[in-house]
Amino acid sequence: METHLNQETSSVEAELQSKLLHDDHHVQKGGLRTMPFIIVNEAFESIASYGLLANMIFYLMEVYHMEAATGTIVLSIWTALSNGLSIVGGFISDAYLGRFRVIATGSLFSLVGVTFLWLTSIVPQLTPSSCQEPDTGCSPPTRAQLGFLYASFGLMSIGSACIRPCSIAFGADQLKHRNNQRLIDSYFNWYYASNTVSIAIATTVVVYIQDQFGWRVGFAVPVLAMFCSALMFLLGSPLYVKVKVDKSPCNQSNHRSTMGTHLNQETSSVEAELQSKLLLDDHHVQKGGLRTMPFIIVNEAFEKVASSGVMANMIFYLMEVYHMEAATGTIVLSIWTALSNGLSVVGGVISDAYLGRFRVIATGSLFSLVGVTFLWLTSILPQLTPSSCQGPDTDQFGWRVGFAVPVLAMLCSALMFLLGSPLYVKVKVDKSPFSGLTQVLIVAFRNRKIRLLPGDCYNHSNDIDQVELTDSLRFLNKACVVRDVDIGSLGSNSCGIPTVENVESLKSLIRIIPIWSSGIILFVNVLQTFPTLEAEKMNRKITSRFEIPAASFSLLMLLTITIWIPFYDRVMVPFLAKFTHEPRGLNLKTRMGVGIILSIITMVVSAIVETIRRDLANANTMVVMSAMWLVPQFVLLGLTEAFNAIGQLEFYYSELPNIMFMVSMAVASLVASILTNIVDSVTGQGGGVSWLSSDIDEGHVDYYYWLLSFLTLLNFVYYLICCRVHRSFSSSESRLSHPVDKERFDGIERKT
């Protein structure tokens, strides 16, 4: 997913004049005042989705009578879909609807999805009948009941895929200003930190409500959150800068896309030109800016609160309500995570090529709101869940209230984002971000038999700066070679010849794939749900009256991230820069490597703690291990994500489409689902007890952790090899250090 790299400078000027400078009301758009709407939209969507995911494994196990392994697979697919569909969401946003419409649509989808889930807890017909006698077994859910449940997951995944890939870029649209670069640089760190706050709320408040008041109330909270998310986003509509969509296949306007960052100097120069023209226009100064940040950040934050609030206890929800085994519930959550992240690629493509970020985020907020509402309904409607093993009168009040909080958070997320609409800078989209890369491959294959000569001419975009054609992956250079050049007639056929910028962008993508793949196993470790099951078996009491919910221990990871990010940004970076002479303190590859090392340590610590816990549990003693022993591994997980995950975000932003981060999470979720399924099947053969048994006292989760430790160690060696062979395609290597007179270029560069 690349940004649009081949726009003629004249096309950029015409677009800027016709679509930005001539808007009499543009002066009142964007800015900091849009931030509350966008941030609330995202924040409440996070509350809704994560508020559901947290306990979902228990809901699947208890209500739908799923095995832990089955529930885990379902949740893994859900996660994978939520992330994988981001490709579609971003694509529609950029090519058709724009970010505003996609975010608004996503908010509605999420609202419907979370409402559907809520209905499963309300309507008895949507769930299997409760188990009358535990020893007689529980009736499995029907296809219709599972279909309704999966539909809610799917709708929430679509919503997340529309909101998440577009929200952060949509917020950045509101701040496009040449004097805002430092603000935008810090925006990524603080935006990520705000997301962790939302997730913290989801994994504490929402999870606590689900535990204390049942599924009906617990799922109602995400519905309410998603409703607020969509509502807030829509209310901000008059304030947003909404970039229009231009679907012309030959119009290649450059902008900072959701699907990709500036992979070469042309994108940088076009962005600089766009920023300077915006500043010179008196009618544009009231669009975007810091005033849009509250809307964007609140949108993302509440979306995180909703989603994290759902996710935190979801393993318990799958196990308790849907009667899933622990391994099954883990697989379900892994798939859910994979979908949530994988679909982000789709969302990013739609955002960049069709709809724009605003529309995609808005659409995603609505999808998330619907999805979390559907999940809430599963705790309200008895028909949407299997019958309880404890009898028909089993109280699901905790889940009902607990899921209602994410619904509310998602509602606020969408609402806040829409409220900022009049202020947003809505960058216009032009074409599919895939077209440039695809064109290079097609033309290179067509020209595969030609020989490159020293005197060949290469098609180059008419821009102020120029990218040098490199000799690496030289066969791709055949895509932009021009033979028998007739400059006078080239203009009419220029859309059929890839530019040097396109070729070098594809090379950058190919170079970075190995390093990208090394991050998959790390996310597999981060996405594990078994620590939550361990906490359930441990002493979690703080006082005689208060007991920490098992799912809330993931808050420790979020708190670590929240504390570490500003500490690293304000303290460690200046300190380390004195020794490393690196503006970031540590270069991005080093940060990612440190994250992998910490991940290895985390898995080793997790294995040791689980071994001790299991031995005590099986020793028939009255001593129950304190859950505080889980604190070190959650803190280490937080540091792992702070180093590696944020490092990946910055790395992809400077080297690749940043949507690759979401793809990593999507693939990791699918890998986690497959790995869980394999381990559960292999270790449970012959009537033996699976390592990932629902009763973790009988299973061997510690062996599973040792397996992950070994795989992560191998991954670290692989990462070192990738770093050694990788030649970074950074801006300093690919862009000229000085401006070039545009009149010196006519679209063709002679390479000598």
UniProtKB/TrEMBL annotation:
Pfam families: PTR2. Its main location: membrane. The keyword Membrane applies. It is found in: Membrane. Coiled coil: none annotated. InterPro entries: MFS_trans_sf, POT_fam, PTR2_symporter_CS. It is a multi-pass membrane protein. GO terms for biological process: oligopeptide transport; transmembrane transport. The chain crosses the membrane at residues 43-61, 73-96, 108-127, 147-170, 190-209, 215-235, 301-319, 331-351, 358-377, 397-419, 509-528, 548-567, 588-609, 629-647, 659-683, 703-721. GO terms for cellular component: plasma membrane. GO terms for molecular function: transmembrane transporter activity. Keywords: Membrane, Transmembrane, Transmembrane helix. The keyword Transmembrane applies. Belongs to the major facilitator superfamily. Phosphate:H(+) symporter (TC 2.A.1.9) family. Belongs to the major facilitator superfamily. Proton-dependent oligopeptide transporter (POT/PTR) (TC 2.A.17) family. This is Putative proton-dependent oligopeptide transporter family. It comes from Helianthus annuus.
